[in-house]
Amino acid sequence: VVDNYGDIGVVYRFARAFRHAHPETRIRVFIDNLVTFNAINCCIDTTKTVQEHESIIYINTSSLDETLLDTLGTADVIIEAFACFPPDKYMKRAFYDSTLLINLEHLSAEPWVEEYHCKESLLPEGTLRKFYFMPGFTKNTGGLLLDTICSPNTCTDAEKIQQINALLPGDYSIEPCDNMLVGTVFTYRRGMLRLIQDCLSIGTPVCLLVFGEKSIESIRYAVQDYTTMSEKPHRLVIQNCTIITMPFLSQITYDTLLTYTDFNIVRGEDSLVRAILAGKPFIWNAYLQDNQYHLVKVRALCEMMKAWFHDLSEYKLYNELLIEFNRAQEESINQSTSESYSSFLHNLKKNEQIFREISYFMTQNCDLVKNITNFIREYPNSIG
Ligand code: TRH
Questions:
Q1: pLDDT digits (tens, 9 = 90+) for 5-38
Q2: Other C-beta atoms lying within 10 Å of the C-beta of residue 175
Q3: Closest by Cα among 254, 233, 235, 257 to 244
Q4: Distance between alpha carbon 4 and the CA centroid of its chain, in Å?
Q5: Residue 135, ligand 1, Cβ within 6 A
Q6: Measured in angstroms, how far is the CA atom of residue 251 from the centroid of ligand 1?
Q7: C-alpha span between 242 and 240 (Å, rounded)
């Protein structure tokens, strides 16, 4: 776990999805930070060196020694996430005993991803061979971690609030209200004043469910000069806008929630994919990179989505929103930003079909577990 929640988020999701597709396989996950894991799945015991959960064995690498390694042995196939090698002690054996090492890379919509997909990466010793596996949004990439939860649903407005409330802890439920727009906000630290201003000016009731310490800090800073009504510390009301600062939910609950809300503001890679599969209009806050390289990733994502927009002026507005949303060079809660949410918020219902179609395409064509299974099954023929 390098930072945040996405590293374990992706690994946990992959292990679960692979296990679900292949109940006959033995899966062991090596992880160095159980506290972060516990935040997205409270069943994980942070004190245990080895534990089994949902038929997957989790091993805390900080307590990994030669005796434990003797018991565990090496695997035929090793999947490393984001180029993080398994511990040296393990690799010393694996270089000679294991068959295939797959580096499951970061997700990007950039075109070069297709070229790198399944390319070999040389190892310093042994008989083991290593290959890049590039997740992506096209048939020629590794695809996305799909699951059964994140598919678009078609419930009515009244059902929507009911379904959302069933997912939230009791104290955090939404007061039902006609025509209310509900959105989730899970971002890095950033200026949020424009979001609040645009939510206030659309007229209809809006409810923002705000997740993670970075977003909560940012939103609290943005509303400090407004007169707010607040019966509870985690619930603020400013005119037509209700803001609920949320505790972290389990990954499965968070995924499900995104399918019921009207829009989602997400960050990192894993929640981006959940937002896409949920089939609801979304805004992506990319992980900030040196020299604003993250803007290249945002542009590539927009370019990938362009084909689904029939109205190019609509696309231009959406593209502009995503670029401006990600323009900042650093994370800061007091930055002034210049994006406009107006068209995004006004056209949520009208544009939902676009996002549904993107979700449908990904579900039909970009199944990462299926693709990695084929790669492993057909190895070494799969390397061409
Ligand atoms: O937390 P992230 O910012 O994680 C990271 C970083 O971008 C990191 O550098 C990158 O390497 C990694 O992603 C892949 O954002 P992300 O990716 O969206 O991960 C958040 C995870 O947290 C995701 O699995 C969903 C989960 N989550 C919950 O389980 N409960 C919650 O309440 C929320 C808000 C999220």
A1: 999 999 999 999 999 999 999 999 999 999 999 9
A2: 12
A3: 235
A4: 11
A5: no
A6: 9
A7: 7
